[in-house]
Amino acid sequence: MSKLGEYVFSGRIYISGGEYDEEQAINRFNHLHSILPEMISHIIKSDYDLFKHVPWLLDAPILIEYVSNFQQLRLIKNYGTPRKFLTF
User: How far is CA 54 from each of CA 25, 35, 57, 60, rounded to the nearest angstrom?
Assistant: First the structure.
């Protein structure tokens, strides 16, 4: 996605919308947050051919939005750039 002339990789992770209590939602957040770098790495490595053709995307930030009905779990985290995940 292009934002203000810069490319950004963005994603959304659904944590809860009311079907989990707060403790379950926190556990879900912690679990997904812990495995996300490995998941991002697999996505980046599987798209290696894309980065060979558009190398400037290697420096695009990866922003992940966590969606939850609990305020403390509703946030956007920066996971660096695809370049970081090619060596992960």
Answer: 38, 27, 6, 11
The DSSP-derived string for the chain is: -EETTEE-EEEEEE--SSSS-HHHHHHHHHHHHHHHHHHHHHHHHHTHHHHHH-GGGGGS-EEEEEE-SSGGG-EEEE---HHHHTT-
For residues 67-88, b (16+ Cβ closer than 10 Å) or e, as one string?
ebebeebeeeeebebbebbeee
pLDDT-above-90 percentage for the chain? 84
In single-letter form, the type of residue at position 7 comes to Y
C-alpha to C-alpha distance for 46 and 52, rounded to whole angstroms: 12
As given in the structure block, the two tokens for residue 86 are: 């090619």
Q: What is the pTM of this model?
A: 0.86
